[in-house]
């Protein structure tokens, strides 16, 4: 083993580049191999499929078909508008939340700060189901309006694009809050003081200090919200909205009868991936180019506000939280209620649905925990070294790896799922089974999709641990390994843990790639929810959904305990 | 000491038992079975469970069963996509024509039923157009009968002041926004019912009718099974092209819904076939045998579908699910007791080009213009 002691006062850069020994390089190669096989190759395959005919000849006609079809173009426009709309609504709610939580002191602040992240715990499909139970045409609200308040017609909250907007907004505003809280938390109070000492106050200070420093956080939050909405197909399907890009991709792919439509599904997925890359390039200008690391999160001084303002703030936050918790209420009621129709709440209650999903068919829960667990191991094994390489070395190609990780965040799950379906369908040598026929494909695709959270969590912690700490260690003769073990690791384990837990929660909730790749006999909870739902067993779907929500909330609680609310950085 | 001896004895006994078992005959069927099916959980779940018990009795094998629920067109496409290396053993449900196509592609195994069991199933049903109930080339066999009809929520219909007895009642302007249906390209029950309308009225008039239906439609659901769900919940008042058993499943689930079997509604024999090259073909053939056995047919008749042969009737003790199902569908006990009207000609409807024509007409003229049609 070659060791580099700091006998020579070489600049840190050079040391880092030379300080990698053979084993390290092999490890670096392994990370590359993983990314090439499980991310780059499938995506290239998807593009190959989109640019060729079934016979394998190059063609642009698929794209011509897309861009000359008025319906597809309308879907594209609708998707973009919906994405922008959701970014606007989540910004209004999310930023207000972040400011109030960070800057002001009011009763229940701690509770609100926890509750404001909870709405993220909402598996696809479950959220919209819950909303429909409460706000649907026969939901609690409309039943009360019609039976008790004399309305003759139900108010249409849900069926249409407005329903999708409601669901996405109340599900995703926490991403925005987290990003802003994280970004603002990193602004050193000394900057504020410096600004004030030269007479910059109020709007001026906001414009000069707060705004530029929070922009990267905001942009990455906005990008995430946008892509999430852009790629979601479950929500629109439930409320009968088909003219969105993700819905069209999903619907065209899951019907195999018409080969031309199937091809269009692939093409639409490819277009979504291309768009995601474009959005990322645009946003990249703001995301992750400046080094905002400081030695610690700053402590922001919170202002006291008058009693009237306190009441206002609590009422506002309370209202949003209540709205955001509507789906939990709906899901809980439906998972216990039997034959619930046209009454405000169920009239008969039963435990039979839980019995069915938890005891008769426990495979969903077991598979979910197992696969999400394996995927987190993948995330850690690949992601922690990857983050370290990005934060501490100048190895060639690390920037590309970093872009790849960020790209994963932006990739629509449907796109990855379809890319895997196409790329891994040939039987493997020796075993004679295609990779998409083995259950391992599920943890792998989950690991890839959730990798960024582990990487970001680790990376963010590494940034907070200023290099000077490690340099100090090395300057007194510690090797890189010792430094990592004695200085870095104790300081970043929280970040790794939190990042991994986020990876875990989100792996549990994944239901776009896994829905397309499901291997018979190895279904996860989200697939179970989908299967129960489309199989007409809505109550069972709700029961399974509730279990998944509780699992997610438990993980979130642990995260909260470990890290407070300071871990928004994983979503950048 | 005594305990040690006893333990040792027990241990040897268990070991010997395990050893002798391993020398016992190789089991007649595999210990796993995977379905790919549009037949909803309401029916496939109990059938798979009962099959596992039946296989344990008959072959002394613990069969692990699982189903991949997919709409008919999707399941069909998935099987094509598997290209002879399927991940499921048995394809169950939908229309015979798609099974014929799969057989032509060489993706199905011939049915291995005893001759007597095969011959018991009538070749076709319905007048004036006969609808095949099994494949003369033996690549698929019908398992059970049920109509694709109309489901409604009685409380909501009463509130709207509408009654539904025939297809045409669906065009009542009072039902604006109240109808739920799945699209014909996602659901074979919808597709078949569109064909019934098109073959009754002819292409042009038929589409006129279907456009009026679209004008009353509040939602095109993602899957056909969603249609009875949203009607049972009261989200929409009426559902179009719903298999009777799905409506009945909602009743068993505690919901208040009614079902109408209109004239000339499509009757499906829910075909079943074993996929060629499947991992567990023997278990697949055993499952078909089970479904057509008296035990299987009796179980099915309690789930809101009808026996495939005249030999069995839907009948059970008072208060049984069988009797509830009979009451639900208006007193019918067998499809062979009455004349079954059918205008659906599978020679017309089954053509690949025709299927694509219907789907693309629907997409261009109804789905893409739905917002304008509703206005």
Give keywords.
heterodimer, A: 572 residues, mainly alpha, MetI-like fold, two-stranded parallel ribbon, 71% helix, disordered N terminus, B: 375 residues, alpha/beta, D-Maltodextrin-Binding Protein, domain 2, 17 strands, 17% strand
What does this structure look like?
The complex is a heterodimer of chains A (572) and B (375). Chain A has 572 residues and is mainly alpha-helical. Chain A has a single domain, classed as MetI-like fold (Orthogonal Bundle). Helix content of chain A is 71%, strand content 1%. Chain A has helices at 12-18, 22-50, 61-68, 70-103, 109-115, 126-135, 140-147, 161-185, 189-197, 202-231, 234-238, 245-254, 259-284, 307-324, 326-336, 352-360, 363-392, 398-410, 413-423, 441-464, 467-475, 480-509, 513-517, 525-534, 538-563, and strands spanning 104-105, 303-304, 337-338, 348-349. A two-stranded parallel sheet of chain A has the order 1-2. A two-stranded antiparallel ribbon of chain A has the order 3-4. In chain A, helix 18 packs across helix 20 (441-464). Chain A is globular. Chain B is α/β, with parallel strands linked by helices and 375 residues long. Chain B has 2 domains: 32-143 and 269-328, 3-Layer(aba) Sandwich (D-Maltodextrin-Binding Protein, domain 2), CATH 3.40.190.10; 146-267 and 345-374, 3-Layer(aba) Sandwich (D-Maltodextrin-Binding Protein, domain 2), CATH 3.40.190. In chain B, helix 2 links the parallel strand 1 (32-37) and strand 2. The radius of gyration of chain B is 23 Å and the shape is globular. At the A-B interface, helix 24 of A face strand 2, helix 3, strand 11, helix 9 and helix 10 of B.
